[in-house]
Structure formats: structure tokens, C-alpha cells
Amino acid sequence: MKKTFCFCMAAALAVCSCGCSSVKKSKVSSSELVAESTAPVNNTARKFIGKWESYKAEIMGESYEEDYAGFPLSAVMKLEIFEDNTATISNALNPRGKESNAGEYKWNITSDGNTDTLHILSEDDRYDCTIEQGQMIVTYGDADSGTQLFLLKTDKFTEPESTTEAGLDKVDFSRFIGKWESEEVTSDGVTYDDMLGEYPVNVGFMLEIKSDNTASMSLFGEELDYSWEPEKKDQLYMWGDYEGFTMNMEDEKLIINDENGLIVKLHKVDEFTEYDFSAAADSVPDDDIILYPPAPEATT
After folding, report:
1. Which of the listed CATH numbers 2.60.40.1670, 3.30.70.1490, 2.40.128.280, 3.40.30.10 matches domain 174-283?
2. CATH 3.30.450 fits 38-154, yes or no
3. Closest to 281 in 3D by CA, of 204, 220, 219
4. What is this structure's pTM?
5. Which are the contacts of 95, defined by CB distance < 8 A and separation ≥ 6?
């Protein structure tokens, strides 16, 4: 499973304040992954082809029929299934509700004689989809997630409400473009300007903002991809699956803020500092310890 921003921070500092969605993705072994599906687009498959959007969810035993964590239900999953045995999934569950592409997938179909199931697979995720009474029911591959999403077919996806000021197309944001390394990190009111756990502070966050409205960040050696767009005349907004950051300039320094207790000050560099993250890897908790901590033992 790919680490998200908050899990990387927790691993390095154990003081992460980032909030994470309870919508969990599943682990899939390589033997389950369909590298190249050749499922025919016949009548069995054709009913799945098209755009589907969530309208109801059952997540970790809770039912959501009006909104999820303050977001409209349509933001939880937008699924498009294509005839060439590929699919795309997006959501809009970051703080500003910006649409984020969750990845490219392959699909195939199995049948038990009564029910046809379309399996959507990537290296990291698996979703099983069935159609009942005109709605698609999507379950995650990990049986313990307790998650079901209910989707309806649509001709056009619901567009997120814009949070961007008007008239920014003439503003020059080129000063943001380039490579940046952290020099100061504040998390939960504690400021670090030397070491972040086992790591020098300057290699904790290595951010490259690109002119094509994308960005990539190495967070303690873990590569994460983002999109960005102007939000105000002096501010950008950068977002991924469940994270979002404002980006401002102060005295030639870049300030990114998740508006949830994490503030990072970065300086511009021509090339990123080389660092062997594997040397400190043994001190970082495993993904599963962070994502699925063991339940406390019952006392007698």
C-alpha cells in the first residue's frame, strides 16, 4: 500500500496531526493483479461500461446517505469503466474538495452463475463491483474494511464547487515554480530546524512545483504526487487524495500549510540534496503498524 502524507509524517515524527480518511484501500498480492485483461465487452460486461458516481456509502459500520465527513456523497468515488479493459477512479475528499485521480486500473469479470462481478485492479488496490437493481455496489478487496459504496450511472460527473478567486489567469506565479527543500517544520506547535526524527530537516520535505500544474514531493524518501492551482493572487493550493496545502511566499521562502497544525518553510535549490534514506529505515515503523495498530489487550 502506498503511504499517504499523514502516515509518512507519523512514521518519522510520531507526532503527526494530519487527519486521514477512514476509507481504506486494500492490499493486493501480485498474483491477484491482472497485468493485461482480455475480458470481452459482451452483454455481461457492457452493463458496467460508463460513468458511475457514489450516492450512498457504508464505511466502517456507519451508513452515510446525505454527506460523508462534510463532503457530498458524490465526492467519495467517481468511477469510469472503459471498453478497453481499463478504468479510472477519482475522489474529492481533500480539504478544498478538489478532484484527485486515484490511479489507472485494469478490470476483468467473473461470474458464479447468478452474479457477475467486475474486478478493478492495480498494483495497490482492488475493488469488486456488482450491479443490483440499477445501482453498482463497490466493495474493497480487504474483507475487514466493512466498506461498501453505492453508485449510480451518470452521463456527467458532478463538478466540485470552485474555491478559486476569479481573474487569476493574468497573475504571474512563476516564482513558485522550481525545487524546494525544507529548512523548518512545525507540527502540533513543535518546531524542528535541525533533525526530523532520524532525518536532517532539509531532506524531510523535497518539493518540486512544475509549470504544468502538477507537483511532486519526496516526504522522507516517499514520493507523492499532487496537483496545484492558483487560489488567490499570492497563494496556490496543492492537493492529493486526502491532503491539501496552501502555498505562500515570505521573504523568498515557500510556506506550505495543511491548515491542520503542520507548517513547512522551504528554500529554493538548484538540485535536491542526495541522502540515503535506507540508512535510517529500520527506525521507521512499518505501514501496517501505523494503519492498523494492534488492539489493546483486554484487562481482567
Report:
1. 2.40.128.280
2. no
3. 220
4. 0.70
5. 239, 243, 244, 258, 259, 260
Q: How far apart are CA 129 and CA 4, in angstroms?
A: 25
Number of Cβ within 10 Å of residue 281's Cβ equals 12
| Nearest residue to 203 via CA among 250, 157, 271 | 271
- H/E stretch holding 11 reads helix 5-13
Give the integer Cα–Cα distance in Å for 251 and 268.
Answer: 12
Cell digits of residue 147: 466498506
**Which sequence spans correspond to the domains of the chain?**
38-154, 174-283
Distance, C-alpha 186 to centroid of its chain: 22
- Length of the chain (residues): 300
pLDDT in tens, 57-83: 998 888 999 898 888 999 999 999 999
- Cell numbers at residue 193, please? 530546524
> Average pLDDT, stretch 128-134?
94
Contact yes or no for 88/70 (Cβ under 8 A): no
| Count of C-beta atoms within a 10 Å radius of residue 33 | 14
Torsion of CA 233, 235, 240, 243, to 10 degrees: -130
The C-alpha atoms of residue 135 and residue 170 are separated, in whole angstroms, by 44
